[in-house]
UniProtKB/TrEMBL annotation:
Signal peptide feature range: none
InterPro entries: Aldolase_TIM, DNA_rSAM_put, Endo/Exo/Phosphatase_dom_1, rSAM, rSAM_sf, RuvA_2-like
Domain of life where this protein originates: Bacteria
Name assigned to this protein: DNA modification/repair radical SAM protein
Cofactor(s) named in the record: [4Fe-4S] cluster
SUPFAM superfamilies the record matches: Radical SAM enzymes, RuvA domain 2-like
GO molecular function, one term: catalytic activity
Keywords: Iron, Iron-sulfur, Metal-binding, S-adenosyl-L-methionine
Coiled-coil residues: none
């Protein structure tokens, strides 16, 4: 790799790390004194293909020059960050080189806006087109869609890419007006709508027995920055809900605002606590998989999620009249509302109780968090009656003690299908 391309790569992989709409992993720190196995929060990220495989992607910007001046963004026109721009050919070559060395299985490509939306979209699309046509590249491609770009260009992008994303960026129109005045919510949602229509059209052609060209088979996602304005969590979740229902987005990613050099005085000096991002993801699961409505998830008066306990537990504590739930009689929808019981365990419980009545031991065997759950359920051998539910100190009783998470905790939670 030439020195010039290497320097561009350093700048443009670093600039891409702020985009969470392509899920990323990896530690942000490297052990002192290490010589091999260094980790970086940028460069290669991971994403999931439609068949559930985790793939590693080269995550870069085509350029970090931008004509817009979004106040939360390090690449805004008024920022004095070092700039670089790849040619289409350089991105194609880098992707192929990394792929052949087995470093990546695909590409996540985004860009600042150069000249105008159409010109930028053309360049991004050309990268994907060259990879597919000239190199017969079959790996995963995620392209960022530029709002305001011509519909035909977005259609073409979807022919070559597996996933498209249009970032909503901020939860409300007022937030956009304040911090990203050049961005217009109708333009963003129109681009999402166009992608959704095309995905549906392709699906119905396929169902009718035709073989239409593939269009963004891994769907579309978006990113919302959290904590750059004072907007509360219920407004953030209302926007996410609208995106899931009106535009059928596959994922909404929540990205905690991270302070940038020489930021506008209107922006907060530090990031919101990361736990807020985590709680929003948990609330997002309640919306998508647990049958909760957006207006019932946030129970606090300030309309923010409780940072100390997960949103399902917070809801249960605020709605004690709904409990205890008899796990041997309750519907699936009721079981999903019990704190400490995940979707996968609900499925198991429904299947077990066809053969015998569920006892406490059965739930414990499923690794249900009994300490959290016991006050809210009736089993064949356990009935807390109203005793626990009337207790003033129920919140303390069921709140998990703070502890350092380990990889194996997370693995256990994943096995139970709990978030
Ligand atoms: S359009 Fe994108 S790259 Fe440009 S300033 Fe706004 S957020 Fe940053």
């Amino acid at each position: 790799m030439s020195r010039d391309v290497q320097q561009k790569l350093e700048i443009l992989a670093d600039a891409a790390k702020y985009d969470a709409s392509c899920s990323s992993s990896g530690s942000k720190s490297t052990r002192a004194g290490s010589q091999i196995g260094s980790t970086e929060g940028m460069g290669i990220c991971h994403s999931y293909t439609p068949d559930g495989r985790c793939v590693s992607l080269l995550k870069i910007l085509l350029t970090n020059y931008c004509i817009f001046d979004c106040q939360y963004c390090v690449n805004r026109v008024s920022s004095d960050t070092p700039r670089a721009r790849f040619t289409v050919g350089e991105v194609v070559q880098l992707t192929m080189d990394f792929y052949k060395r087995n470093y990546v299985e695909g590409l996540f490509l985004s860009s600042g806006i150069i000249q105008n939306s159409d010109y930028t979209m053309e360049q991004l699309t050309q990268v994907a087109k060259d990879l597919r046509q000239k190199h017969r590249f079959g790996g995963y491609i995620h392209l960022k869609t530029i709002p305001g770009a011509n519909e035909k260009l977005i259609e073409e992008a979807g022919m070559w890419a597996d996933r498209l994303s249009v970032n909503i960026e901020l939860p409300t129109e007022l937030d956009l007006k304040q911090l990203a005045p050049e961005k217009k919510k109708p333009e963003i949602t129109q681009a999402m709508h166009g992608i959704q229509e095309k995905i549906e059209e392709t699906k119905s052609d396929r169902n009718a027995g035709y073989k239409p060209p593939s269009f963004a088979p891994a769907g579309q996602s978006t990113q919302m920055i959290v904590g750059a304005t004072a907007t509360s969590d219920d407004a953030i979740l209302a926007t996410a809900d609208e995106l899931y229902t009106a535009h059928e987005l596959r994922r909404v990613y929540y990205s905690a605002y991270s302070p940038i050099p020489h930021a506008d005085a209107a922006l907060p000096g530090k990031s919101p606590p990361l736990i807020r991002e985590h709680r929003l993801y948990q609330a997002d699961w309640l919306l998508r998989f647990y049958g909760f409505d957006v207006d019932e998830i946030v129970v606090r008066e300030d309309r923010n999620l409780d940072l100390d306990i997960d949103p399902k537990l917070a809801w249960a504590l605020a709605h004690r009249e709904y409990f205890p739930i008899d796990v041997n009689r309750a519907t699936r929808e009721q079981l999903l509302r019990i704190p400490g019981i995940g979707a996968r365990n609900v499925k198991r419980m429904l299947s077990i109780r066809r053969h015998h009545a569920l006892r406490t031991e059965d739930l414990k065997k499923m690794r249900v968090v009994w300490k959290r759950t016991k006050s809210f359920v009736i089993t064949a051998d356990h009935n807390p009656s109203l005793g626990d539910l009337d207790r003033q100190d129920l919140r303390q009783l069921v709140t998990p003690k703070p502890k350092q998470l380990t990889l194996f905790d997370a693995f256990g939670e994943a096995l139970k299908g709990e978030f």
